[in-house]
Amino acid sequence: MLNEFKAFIAKGNVVDLAVGIIIGVAFTAIVNSLVGDLINPIIGLMTGGLDFSNLFIDLSGTNPASLAIAREAGVPVFAYGAFITAIINFLIIAWVVFLLVKAVNKLKEATARKEAAEAAAAAPAGPTELDLLKEIRDSLQQR
């Protein structure tokens, strides 16, 4: 059983998945900063100072001044602004992943074309049409 576990862990897929998760966690911090520090202020500027992250509906009737105060007090809130921010985060992550996959695919295609061209150039050239005609002529003359 221990040997099977070692074989499972040693497989490339498990290691690739672990690396992907680690990079994903690090990338999440970058995206959160991009959204919170750059995108949301621009959207807030375009919408007249609206900050999505502080939008909420108070479900208790106590009317807290901000979402942070409501959460600190344990007041039940419907924080739809945080949901909007999560949607923006998702769209940005999806766009960046799309661009990365597109770039990787373009790089793979260029590499495949280069390898195909090198293989074609390295392949021995076959006889030309003239060479074949000369062979036919010579074999006919020998008869």
Provide a brief overview of the structure:
The chain has helices at 2-10, 12-46, 67-73, 80-122, 129-142, and strands at 57-58, 77-78. It has 143 residues and is mainly alpha-helical. A two-stranded antiparallel sheet has the order 1-2.
Description:
By secondary structure, the protein is mainly α. The protein has a single domain (2-138), classed as Orthogonal Bundle (Non-ribosomal Peptide Synthetase Peptidyl Carrier Protein, Chain A). It is 76% helix and 3% strand. It contains five helices and two strands. The protein has helices spanning 2-10, 12-46, 67-73, 80-122, 129-142; strands at residues 57-58, 77-78. It has a two-stranded antiparallel sheet. Helix 2 packs across helix 4 (80-122). It starts with a helix and ends with a helix. The mean pLDDT is 84.
